[in-house]
Amino acid sequence: MHIPDGFLNMTTVAAAGVISAGGLGAAVKIAAKKIGEKQVPLMGMLAAFIFAAQMLNFPVAGGTSGHLIGAALCAILIGPWAGVIIMSAVLIAQALIFQDGGLAALGANILNMGILAVFGAYFIFRAAAAMLGDGRWAKLTGAAIAGWVSVMVASLAAAVELAASGMSAFEVVGPAMLAVHALIGIGEGLITVLVVSAVMASRADVLQLERI
């Protein structure tokens, strides 16, 4: 999912960088107005958990592997704007420390996994709650769908960026990215459900916090 340097042309790098910088700036501005003393430690714990969890890969068909993105967890537990900040911090640290994703491609990676995936998951979770209600199983079903959708949104955006950069025709890279990430998204959905279920069982008050 992390796009390395050399795969995107300068136009795509610049466009994604500008959009991501604007999105992150808006997130910081909005979060600064709404954040409370209870959200700060939660943001830190989520960032640490997602940073560590992204190091663990799980096998996928055809010898490929996937790992948690965490965008849906952020969207569900603390809200989309705070989620953008958390995911951006994780992706920046990974790029600088582990070279996981290129520095020039950092704007694209933040756009895909830190903005589009977070907001995609948030709106899906909200839509599921509106249709299914506010019960435990409704929330867990919404969490599963939101986790899967977040991976698909991020992979579709990456495919569009690769095609726009001339790396491959979208008719080739699009189906290839979506096919393998449809399987990875199942893992994302399961992990999201497990974490949300654990939070509901041990710290249900977290789910009552205002989303940022």
UniProtKB/TrEMBL annotation:
It is a multi-pass membrane protein. Its main location: membrane. GO terms for cellular component: plasma membrane. The keyword Transmembrane applies. It comes from the Bacteria. It holds the Pfam family CbiM. GO terms for biological process: transition metal ion transport. InterPro entries: CbiM/NikMN. It is found in: Cell membrane. Keywords: Cell membrane, Membrane, Transmembrane, Transmembrane helix, Transport. The chain crosses the membrane at residues 6-28, 40-62, 68-91, 103-125, 145-164, 176-201. This is Energy-coupling factor ABC transporter permease. It comes from Dehalogenimonas sp. 4OHTPN.
